[in-house]
Design a protein that fits this description.
The chain is mainly alpha-helical. It folds into two domains: 87 residues, Arc Repressor Mutant, subunit A (Orthogonal Bundle), CATH 1.10.10.10; 70 residues. Helices cover 62% and strands 6% of the residues. The chain contains seven helices and four strands; from the N terminus they run ββαααββαααα. It has a two-stranded antiparallel ribbon. Helix 2 crosses helix 3. The longest helix has 31 residues. It starts with a strand and ends with a helix. The model has no long low-confidence stretch (mean pLDDT 91).
């Protein structure tokens, strides 16, 4: 789906506009910012970013800046982009769109063999334990930066990771 959904910006386009409030960024910088700021609760792919940026520019929501090293193209938020983002903020957030690959596989647990399911749980346990450690470190930094919104979203992400880790301890076996 492109930048404009039936009711305005799609979430990826809105996220990019929100991040550009911090200043001009290239596609790569936007990816890094999205991973850092939004990664604990929202995934954005490189292809989504690079697909949305030209459309945002075409609609006048961003303008391209002076090319940098290795022909990197910075994007700058325009007044129209700020207005579009503000409209998006005022829209209903809608329903959650959870996409968890672990739970998708677990939903088909009866179709696994014993070894597959056990390996899935163990590997995901390690992934989520590591993510929990990373999030706790990010939370310390957010508290130092006195960013209550970042702190709140990281606390939610930590609660989610704890719940997932606890679920793995009690997940059904074959």
């Amino acid at each position: 789906m492109g930048v404009m959904a039936e009711k305005g910006l799609n979430a990826t386009a809105a996220a990019l506009l929100g991040l550009l409030h911090e200043g001009a960024m290239t596609g790569g910088q936007l990816m890094a910012a999205a991973e850092s700021r939004l990664g604990p609760f929202w995934t954005t792919t490189r292809s989504q970013v690079y697909r949305e940026l030209p459309v945002l520019a075409e609609r006048g929501y961003v303008r391209t800046g002076k090319p940098g090293p290795r022909s990197s193209q910075p994007y700058v938020l325009t007044a129209a982009g700020k207005r579009a983002f503000s409209r998006w903020l005022s829209e209903s957030a809608g329903r959650d769109q959870l996409r968890n690959p672990l739970l998708l596989r677990a939903a088909f647990g009866r179709l696994h063999n014993d070894k597959q399911l056990q390996q899935l749980y163990e590997a995901q346990g390690e992934v989520h334990a590591q993510r929990l450690t990373e999030l706790r470190e990010e939370l310390k930094e957010a508290k130092k930066a006195d960013d209550p919104f970042r702190v709140a979203t990281l606390e939610f992400a930590i609660t989610y990771q704890r719940a997932l880790t606890k679920w793995l301890d009690t997940a059904p076996q074959l």
